UniProtKB/TrEMBL annotation, chain A:
<comment type="similarity">
    <text>Belongs to the anamorsin family.</text>
</comment>
<feature type="binding site">
    <location>
        <position position="226"/>
    </location>
    <ligand>
        <name>[2Fe-2S] cluster</name>
    </ligand>
</feature>
<dbReference type="InterPro" id="IPR007785">
    <property type="entry name" value="Anamorsin"/>
</dbReference>
<feature type="short sequence motif" description="Cx2C motif 1">
    <location>
        <begin position="274"/>
        <end position="277"/>
    </location>
</feature>
<dbReference type="GO" id="GO:0046872">
    <property type="term" value="F:metal ion binding"/>
</dbReference>
<feature type="binding site">
    <location>
        <position position="274"/>
    </location>
    <ligand>
        <name>[4Fe-4S] cluster</name>
    </ligand>
</feature>
<keyword id="KW-0411">Iron-sulfur</keyword>
<keyword id="KW-0004">4Fe-4S</keyword>
<dbReference type="GO" id="GO:0016226">
    <property type="term" value="P:iron-sulfur cluster assembly"/>
</dbReference>
TrEMBL record, chain B:
<dbReference type="InterPro" id="IPR001709">
    <property type="entry name" value="Flavoprot_Pyr_Nucl_cyt_Rdtase"/>
</dbReference>
<dbReference type="InterPro" id="IPR017927">
    <property type="entry name" value="FAD-bd_FR_type"/>
</dbReference>
<dbReference type="InterPro" id="IPR017938">
    <property type="entry name" value="Riboflavin_synthase-like_b-brl"/>
</dbReference>
<dbReference type="GO" id="GO:0050660">
    <property type="term" value="F:flavin adenine dinucleotide binding"/>
</dbReference>
<keyword id="KW-0285">Flavoprotein</keyword>
<comment type="similarity">
    <text>In the N-terminal section; belongs to the flavodoxin family.</text>
</comment>
<keyword id="KW-0963">Cytoplasm</keyword>
<feature type="binding site">
    <location>
        <begin position="411"/>
        <end position="414"/>
    </location>
    <ligand>
        <name>FAD</name>
    </ligand>
</feature>
<dbReference type="Pfam" id="PF00667">
    <property type="entry name" value="FAD_binding_1"/>
</dbReference>
Length: 311, 622
């Protein structure tokens, strides 16, 4: 005897007024060998008052009195349902209009028998980008985290079709441009006589009548040497670069096999109390001897073969 | 179903030289989307001119080239070969009525640098034509940003160009939100509110796996721009001394077909990333690896990609051919990706470090003071790939790769070969330099070229710039001025035997190290094909009198003035931008004042301007 498949029944709130729908659904599930383990209102899942476990179910049914082509389902729940299914698990009840969300969340659609979605057996990473879960720390730490707990909230992705098209909703546009269209008629013909571009600009370096900024939040940026610098700034920049590189040589042994160790034992090497040396340039103090080197894990060999060629 | 998010009612158009204007346009677009304003975002050159009839709110962000021109992507479309039906060429027609644009409200932001004489000329030209001559309304006066903070909107404030952008953005958003304070959702009118900061805005079209199998073949093709061709490398030869710091190549490739081109025309080359860089990217985003070679499709329309979209569509191919992972990431990149800093498994200090990285990434994207971003990315020329190396908490969703990764752009080179020659020759300086990062910085495209061997293939497109056509040039003297790699188009002019009297002013550093095409030029001089005036700026021994090309011009100033005033001569200046073009111009002006027999200095000055206006003083600098 094969073990019964575990099912989840999700219910649209309006179904509660049509109990016969529910009874029929339970009957059908039983007939196809599915044991309904849980039964939730989607509103409860949506407001997170009920949580579903990851990879628990073989089948999920969604039950709604809406017409099939008028079904409205919160797209943010689709990844949650994807998580709740075992690999190759099936989801019944969502229409083909959500196909895009299906594909993005790692489902394929199937039309043998009743239309349904199948959770792809491809490792989830490769097929789902949304939502993104914070990965747990590698190694030991990962085991301490129960799999259903999210270490941080998933990235929310909004559809651009949230955008409103002004033409649709602000029909106050009573400008009639049809009379102007005739000027565009010979758009693709060889250009007619053109105005003289140079005559468009007055010979003034500093015109009035422009908007002045009210508050500049930027500090004066340190100037950059011009391409053909003659004032000495270029040499100054080159000296700075050489100095930073010299500092690097003092803390890192660039060895011949291109495997380089960040060595904490070099005598006289300064390690700041800032604790930020290993975090990468974005976090290093100015004057940090590691400036210009990639982020690293202290004490570990880092392969800077990639950064090393052509030195 | 998915609704069209592109609206013609609002349009953001940019003309960009180095990418600053484009990035500000992208940031404004991002902000509008987050306020639920559908709109059009495009370069000025790619904008569909007819759409201006449906536009009510236009935002133009445009930089200015060294010569006061609109940037290339404002003048021409990126696809095909179109320069004549772009918005700007249309708006310059003389037969347009003065109320043509009175249905449009338009805001301008110009990006400029007051160390150039024609400061912010491009935005002023656009402004004058669109507002004063064609009747568009301006809800607030334009802004002009100055890299040097000496002129324009940030004059003497010490504030950078980004401050000017943010002032522009604030005015733009205030204005739109005041006009459209509400929006409709499912028929219900609600207040217009910005999306929460950590919600990622899904692009129009995302990537999906088409089939679960792997594509093994390495062969690719591109569809979308029929003017892009595939050529085959014939020669790739270093022409500077091995010990000279700069590697300059004579680079020749066989065209895919017979092309019509002439002196002054250019070739754009479509470079790609090395397989090694792509692999490094995949190692840094390991969850991309299992899908890297799977066939993909777009969930909606395929995005428009300059030069055409790679086939077969896989992540690996997209990373190699379209995603500029070796570029320096801009603020808009950080704005989009910070919310994906969700992976603490690769961090030594777990959650704390993840949050620290998340915050830093967000700050790089949002800070109106871009100083930290500049110091971290721009100054050391740090690549996007290296940023990923430093921020291991970033776990990027490949589905939206084309939304947050910047696109590889083609690079332009002047043609050196003679007209219509089936072997197309370029003169390419390989870009390499040192910063505080240990790895030598390389230019994506010139590194790509440097590594090509005879027989290798490359994608290219020819631009006909019509610089020297329709003119009877044979008997008019040509004064060619070209320091360094500026020699590239001069080689084409000489080979075309465009004039009986060609004078070449050619400057390099050392006679024995970087005197490009030395033997050929000397031979041409011996056979009287050209008169050569060379000089070497770091080589006292071989060039004791002259350092720069302008020194040689000045030395025969009398002759130059006579050729210009009496013989209808044409000047063509080509080379690196910076101070050189200005100094040459000043020298020519002084020559005219001294030897031109003008009654006043102003008359000499006007004469020089007339030369520029009549295309007798042509300039191509980069």
């Amino acid at each position: 005897m094969t073990e019964a498949e575990l099912g989840l029944l999700l219910i649209h709130p309006a179904v509660t007024t049509e109990p016969e729908l529910l009874a029929k659904a339970l009957e059908e599930a039983a007939a196809s060998g599915v044991q309904i383990a849980d039964q939730f209102l989607i509103t409860k899942i949506n407001d997170k008052s009920v949580a579903v476990e990851d990879e628990k179910y073989d089948v999920i049914y969604y039950l709604t009195p809406e017409k099939r082509d008028a079904i409205k389902f919160p797209a943010t729940l689709i990844p949650v349902l994807a998580d709740a299914l075992k690999p190759n698990g099936k989801l019944y009840g969502l229409p083909d209009t959500y196909k895009l969300d299906a594909l993005i969340n790692g489902f394929t659609t199937a039309s043998e028998g009743r239309y349904h979605w199948v959770k792809s057996a491809v490792p989830q990473d490769t097929a789902t980008a949304v939502p993104l879960k914070a990965r747990a720390n590698g190694g030991g730490a990962a085991k301490k985290l129960p799999s259903f707990k999210r270490a941080s909230s998933p990235v929310q992705v909004a559809q651009q079709d949230n955008d409103n098209v002004l033409e649709d909703e602000y029909d106050d546009d009573n400008v009639n441009t049809s009379g102007k269209a005739k000027f565009f008629a010979d758009l693709h013909n060889p250009p007619a006589e053109l105005i003289e571009e140079e005559e468009l600009v007055a010979d003034s370096r500093d015109p009035t009548g422009i908007t002045m900024i009210t508050c500049g939040k930027t500090k004066t940026r340190r100037k950059k040497a011009c391409k053909d610098c003659t004032c000495g700034m270029k040499e100054q920049e080159e000296q700075e670069v050489d100095q930073v590189r010299k500092n690097q040589d003092a803390v890192v042994k660039f060895s011949e096999d291109e495997l380089t160790e960040i060595d904490f034992t070099i005598e006289g090497k300064k390690v700041g109390g800032c604790n930020s040396c290993s975090l990468g340039d974005a976090f290093r103090c100015s004057g940090c001897p590691y400036l210009g080197l990639p982020a690293f894990k202290p004490g570990q060999k880092i392969n800077i073969g990639s950064i090393l060629d052509d030195i | 179903m998915v609704k069209a998010r592109i609206s013609k009612r609002i349009a953001i158009l940019y003309g960009s030289e180095t990418g600053n204007a484009q990035d500000f346009a992208f940031i404004l677009s991002h902000k509008l989307h987050r306020l639920h304003f559908a709109h059009t975002l495009s370069s000025l050159g790619d904008y569909n001119t007819l759409d201006i009839l449906d536009c009510r709110h236009l935002f133009i962000i445009c930089s200015t080239t060294g010569q006061g021109e609109l940037p290339r992507n404002a003048l021409e479309a990126s696809h095909g070969n179109n320069r004549s039906s772009t918005l700007w060429s249309f708006l310059r027609r003389k037969d347009l009525p003065s109320d043509l644009l009175n249905h449009v409200s338009v805001s301008f932001l110009g990006l400029g640098d007051s160390s150039y004489p024609k400061f912010n000329y491009a935005i002023r030209k656009l402004h004058e034509r669109i507002v004063n001559q064609l009747g568009a309304k301006e809800p607030y006066k334009r802004l002009e940003a100055d890299e040097q903070c000496m002129l324009g909107s940030n004059k003497n404030t010490g504030a950078g160009i980004e401050s000017v952008y943010f002032e522009f953005e604030k005015k733009a958003l205030d204005n739109l939100c005041a006009t459209y304070p509400t929006r409709k959702v499912n028929g219900e009118i609600i207040k217009r509110e910005e999306l929460p900061a950590d919600v990622y805005l899904r692009p129009d079209s995302s990537l999906l796996i088409e089939r679960d199998d792997n594509i093994q073949s390495n062969s690719v093709s591109f569809k979308g721009d029929e003017f892009v061709r595939v050529g085959s490398v014939e020669r790739n030869q270093r022409i500077t001394h091995a010990e000279h710091f700069q590697d300059v190549r004579q680079f020749i490739f066989k065209g895919a077909e017979a092309h019509e081109y002439g002196p002054g025309d250019t070739v754009s080359i479509f470079p790609c990333n090395t397989d090694q860089s792509v692999q490094q990217f995949l190692e840094l985003q390991p969850h991309w690896k299992p899908v890297a070679d799977k066939p993909l499709i777009f969930s909606d329309r395929a995005p428009s990609i300059e030069g055409g979209l790679v086939q077969p569509l896989t992540l690996r191919n997209l990373l190699k051919y379209h995603c500029d992972i070796m570029s320096i990431p801009r603020a808009s990149f950080f704005k989009k990706v910070w919310t994906f800093a969700t992976d603490m498994s690769r961090l030594e200090r777990g959650l704390e470090q993840m949050n620290q990285q998340r915050e830093k990434l967000q700050q790089f994207g949002a800070d109106e003071d871009m100083q930290d971003l500049f110091d971290y990315c721009n100054r050391p020329r740090r690549s996007l790939l290296e940023v990923l190396q430093d921020f291991m908490s970033l776990r990027l969703p490949w589905e939206f790769a084309l939304d947050f990764l910047p696109a590889i752009k083609p690079r332009y080179f002047s043609i050196s070969s003679g007209p219509n020659c089936s072997s197309i020759e370029l003169t390419v300086a390989i870009v390499r330099y040192k910063t505080i990062l240990r790895k030598i910085r390389k230019g994506l495209c010139t590194d790509f070229i440097a590594n090509l061997s005879p027989g290798d293939q490359l994608r290219y497109k020819i631009q006909n710039n019509h610089l020297f056509e329709n003119e009877q040039l044979r008997d008019r003297p040509m004064i060619l001025i070209s320091p360094g790699v500026g020699i590239a188009p001069m080689m084409s002019l000489i080979r075309a035997e465009i004039s009986n009297q060609i004078m070449l002013f050619f400057g390099n550093r050392f006679m024995e190290k970087d005197f490009l095409y030395k033997d050929l030029l000397q031979k041409w001089e011996e056979t009287n094909r050209i008169t050569l005036f060379s000089c070497f700026s770091r080589d006292r021994e071989n060039s004791p009198e002259f350092k720069y090309v302008q020194d040689r011009l000045w030395a025969i100033g009398n002759t130059i003035a006579r050729l210009l005033v009496e013989k209808d001569a044409i000047i063509y200046l080509c080379g690196s931008s910076g101070k050189m073009p200005t100094q040459v111009r000043i020298t020519l002006l002084e020559i005219l004042k001294k030897w031109g027999n003008f009654e006043t200095d102003t008359a000499a000055c006007d004469y020089l301007k007339l030369l520029e206006k009549n295309d007798r003083y042509l300039q191509e600098t980069w």
